[in-house]
Amino acid sequence: MSKAVLIVDDESEMLDVLRKALEHYSKVFSVLVAGDGEAALEILRENDIALVVTDLIMPKMDGFSLLVHIRSDFPGIPVIIMTGHRHPVMERMAWKIGVADYIEKPFKFEELAQRIIANLGEEGRGKDGGLRKIKVPFFLRLIDLEKMTCRVSLLERSSRREGIMFFRDGRLVDARLEDLPPEKAVYEMLGWNDVDISTEKGGSPADMGLSMSLQDILDKTG
Asked: Measured between alpha carbons, how far is 25 from 23 in angstroms, rounded to an integer?
């Protein structure tokens, strides 16, 4: 029986092309599409989705927040990330957070189809087959790679402490946690393990509280 695959991207023309191109594989999987994370979650709630392919940079709810929601609400569904940025650490990062695979844009339709087919076997394995607990450092590395300008809100579940990090073009420019200095706030939040994470595009403060690069901070924390 054909399984349903959800492809999420804000480029409507690309979604149309992908849906038509992948019809060739309809005996193996069918394709549903969504233009952002919010629309994707509605489809996930209303359909039996076997695998998700998602871009990271999108309006409303981006791929970063979508990953968090899938990990929380649909932990058994494999995820393939579409990224426009090649980086030697991406494969290791994908493995660390349990992403099934990643594919660099631009790609051939046949390549995406083969990756989907290869990972459809992961569906149905339960929680171990989907996203693992997403740790803060790896989430921030994705933001760094994608050069995002955004506000990242973090909530540590056990203590209910809330913090915020601000990014401009992938560079960490400020962090706020209680009355801690920005750099100390960053190190504190990087150590949180059970965390709810959400992102909001833009929101970068005018006065930057940090001059240290995100990469330097992450390197110091291992």
From this structure: 5
State in Å, rounded, how far the first CA of the chain is from the last one: 45
44-71: b (≥16 Cβ within 10 Å) or e:
beeeebbbbbbbbbbeebbbbbbbbbbb
**In which band, very low, low, confident or very high, does the pLDDT at 211 lie, cut at 50, 70 and 90?**
low
Contact (CB, 8 A) for 25 and 52: no
**In this structure, are residues 28 and 3 in contact, taking their beta carbons and an 8 Å threshold?**
yes
Global pTM?
0.69
**Cβ partners under 8 Å of residue 93, min gap 6:** 99, 138, 141, 142
Q: What is the pLDDT, as a whole number, of residue 206?
A: 61
User: What's the pLDDT tens digit per position in 117-159?
Assistant: 999 975 444 334 455 566 787 778 777 777 888 888 899 988 9
Residue 137 to residue 132: CA distance in whole angstroms: 14
Distance, CA of 113 to CA of 72 (rounded, Å) = 26
167 is written with which tokens?
């990014």
Compute the C-alpha angle 154/157/163, nearest 5°: 25
Distance CA 181, CA 184 (A): 5
